[in-house]
Amino acid sequence: MKCLSLRQPYAELLVSGKKTIELRKWNTKFRGKFLIHASKNVNKERCKFLGIDHTKLCIGIGRAILYDIKKYDNKTHLMRDKNSHYADANIFDSYMYGFMIKNAQRLRHPIPYSGKLGFFEVNESNLHTHMSS
Questions:
Q1: CATH superfamily to which 2-110 belongs
Q2: pLDDT band for position 122 (cuts 50, 70, 90)
Q3: Which residues, 6 or more positions from 42, have their beta carbon under 8 angstroms from its beta carbon?
Q4: pTM of the predicted model, to two decimals?
Q5: What is the pLDDT of residues 27-52, one digit of tens each?
Q6: Sign of the Cα pseudo-torsion (23, 28, 34, 40, in order)
Q7: Strand pairing partners for 102?
Q8: First vs last Cα of the chain: how many Å apart?
């Protein structure tokens, strides 16, 4: 199954359903279910700004559905969706694609896993016991 790595607190915001747009520098033709990997890297400044205790964030995997891509042509369009992607306007020059996410959820038990850049494949067979219903 495809998997995508996110820094914390963005992985937590996504699996909790608060974040519904994941910003990326690159586009993809992929649509469908994928796993969310929470990397070991934590943006502590962003956690503080969002009122999230970075010491309580876990490393593991969740899942979601990527159903569409939104291309941002300017900062104004990007900032219209700020409550869906939780990013700062200063990132516009780098992040121009919004991966539209739905049905995000965390797994019952987080599974530590090594992340990679872009979408990468994860063997789903050893994850079934950890996935919630």
A1: Hypothetical protein. (2.30.130.30)
A2: confident
A3: 7, 8, 9, 54, 57
A4: 0.82
A5: 999 999 998 888 778 888 888 888 88
A6: negative
A7: 65
A8: 17
